Amino acid sequence: MTTYDADGVTLEKVRDYVWEIPQEGGMNRPARVLASEDLLDEISEDKTLQQLKNATHLPGVRKYAICMPDGHQGYGFPVGGVAGIDAEDGCISPGAVGYDINCGVRMMKTNLTYADVQGREEELVDALFEAVPSGLGGGGVHQGTKGDVDAILERGMEWALEEGFAVPEDLEHCEDEGVRHDADPDRVSQKAKDRGKNQIGSLGSGNHFLEVQRVTDVYRDDVAERFGLSEDQIVVLIHCGSRGLGHQVCTDYLRDIEQAHAGLLDRLPDKELAAAPAGSQLAEDYYGAMCAAINFAWVNRQLIMHRTREVFADVFDTTWEDLEMDLLYDVAHNIAKKETHEVEDGEERELFVHRKGATRAFPAGREEVPPAYRDVGQPIIIPGSMGAGSYVLRGGEESLSETFGSTAHGAGRLMSRTQAKQEFWGGDVQDDLREQSHVYVKAQSGATVAEEAPGVYKDVDEVVRVSDALGIGDRVARTFPVCNIKG
Question: Which domains does the chain have, with CATH numbers?
Answer without folding.
Answer: 3-414+457-486 (3.90.1860.10)
